[in-house]
Specification:
The protein is of the alpha+beta class and 259 residues long. Helices cover 36% and strands 13% of the residues.
Amino acid sequence: MQSKIAEALCLRYNPVAVLWTNEKPTGALQFKEGRWGCVVAMLVAAAKGQVAVFDRKTFGCLGGGTGLGFGNQYVNFPGGIEYFLSTGNQEFAKTQEGQKMVRNTPALQHGERYIKNPQLAKKFVDSLPMIDVPTEFIVLKPLQNVTEDEKPKGVVFLVTPDQLSALVVLAHYARGTNYNVVAPFGAGCQTCGIFAYKESESDQPRAIIGLTDISVRNKVDRDILSFTVPYKMYLEMEDNVEGSFLELATWRKVITRNT
């Protein structure tokens, strides 16, 4: 599936399709069962041309399982996710299990401090658009490799500030409204997964700016953010490339510094 948007933006990376499927792609990258891994690292691999697959035993981490859409995996978080996101769980860190885990994950003890306190962190987690997808697998693959019989749930662009600016403009180009792009607080995988899934239920879905998650910033180039669109919105934006600002000199002057 070729993308007019990708061509007009001179993207550094391939747009990535997010697919729900019951068929496991041959030769895809996949985390080993029970081993830690970051979904964003797999997203970057897909943007570079590979295919990645996840199931309910190989989503890498509990946040990744939640963000991809394999239900609320945070209920299984040792010591409580609300403490991990905020001020830590000193009591759990003193237990035998906690002491073993703190060696690799010190934030279990002192917290990530992304949210002020455990009460607010619980409120945040409870507000997430949790979903348990109806398929066995979730696949990330380059959009250009998507076949005619596949229908993505969303498309993820990895973009520079200049390219992000163009996508924000294009998202509003044929809407006549002002709030068609949002930047919700959440994990990197959530902004590419469950937040976009939720938007896809709307008659006027919005795009999601993501990878503002500090914990995954070292997984991507320092000038890269994500811009995720539900598939229906992607098709709308694709149809609006021709005749838009993307064909004019103002944009061409800007994009030359990205090539």
